[in-house]
Amino acid sequence: MTSMLPDEGEHLATGWDADLDPADSIVRQAVLVHASWAVAQARGLGRPWQDGPRWAAGHAGDRGALTNWVVVKQPLLDLGQVVDEVDELLPRDVPYLLVSAWPTPDLTPHGLGLVGHPPLMFRSPSPVTESPPSDLDVRWVEGAAELADAERVLVEGYPMPELQPFAPGALYAPPLLETTTRVVVAYDDDVPIATAAAHSAHGITLVEGVAVMPSARGKGAGAAVTVAATTAYPGQPAVLLASDDGQPVYARLGYLRLERWTIWMRAS
């Protein structure tokens, strides 16, 4: 019988080595595309960001925890130290979300509150998913005016009251469209009612920023923009973090639940 013990000195891959192929696992791809998204938002706004082997983050704005993301890139026992390191990028009066694919220690002593454990959902590129039939005009954002429409829907439809009164540029800026991020808006008689973003990195698409205006819910607008974002990069699988209430909607669009992640928040 051949020994399964490693040779002395042989490197044993953990699945999170910095030089490992991103496609080593779906979860690894999901972690890395979330980290890329955190950085892309800040870079698009010309704001500070950091991307290292342990975590990535962007300081996209000074208000609203959803504006700033900190994504843990490997299993860590010293998350308290990570919080201390993040303080050098994000001042203590700036809110943020800390996203971990792994269970975490209690971070309340470090000033964070537990948001929850949202399901990570995955969709293979193989299913053919068509947008539900509707009279909505679903458009890919091409300029500043449409990008402002998308941002308004995200702020008012999500909602994000801390970003009111609305002023464009707090979440999205035109340079974001020069990256691997695409933003879609659904219009009803030229009125923007739903939006979603598709961010591509490491061979996978992250669907983010899905929002529908309260007055437009139930018209299929959310499904329409989600399908558009999911298929924005043909041939790529897609992932997203869902709420428990929202995950049945994504399941109908071909998404499967993989596991639950952990999200903490530091409020301003």
Can you tell me about this structure?
This protein has 268 residues and is an alpha+beta fold. The chain has 2 domains: 22-118, no CATH class; 123-258, Aminopeptidase, CATH 3.40.630.30. It has 5 helices and 13 strands. It has helices at residues 26-44, 79-86, 144-157, 221-230, 247-252; strands at residues 49-51, 55-58, 69-72, 96-100, 113-116, 119-123, 137-140, 181-188, 191-201, 204-212, 238-241, 256-260, 262-266. The strands form 2 sheets. It has a 7-stranded mixed β-sheet with strand order 7-8-9-10-11-6-12, with helices on both faces. A 6-stranded mixed β-sheet has the order 1-2-3-4-13-5, covered by helices on one side. The model has no long low-confidence stretch (mean pLDDT 92).
CATH topology of the largest domain: Aminopeptidase
The helicity comes to 10-25%
Q: Main sheet, how many strands, which sense, barrel? A: 7 strands, mixed
β-strand percent reads 25-35%
Count of distinct structural domains: 2
Cα-to-Cα separation, first versus last residue: 60 Å
Number of helices: 5
CATH superfamily of the largest domain: Gcn5-related N-acetyltransferase (GNAT)
CATH class of the largest domain: Alpha Beta
User: Which structural class do you get from the secondary structure elements?
Assistant: alpha+beta
Mean pLDDT: 92
Per CATH, which architecture of the largest domain? Answer: 3-Layer(aba) Sandwich
Radius of gyration: 19 Å
Molecular shape? globular
Unreliable spans are none
Instruction: Strand order, main sheet: write it out.
Output: 7-8-9-10-11-6-12
Q: How many strands appear in the DSSP assignment?
A: 13
The H-and-E topology, N to C, reads as HEEEHEEEEHEEEHEHEE
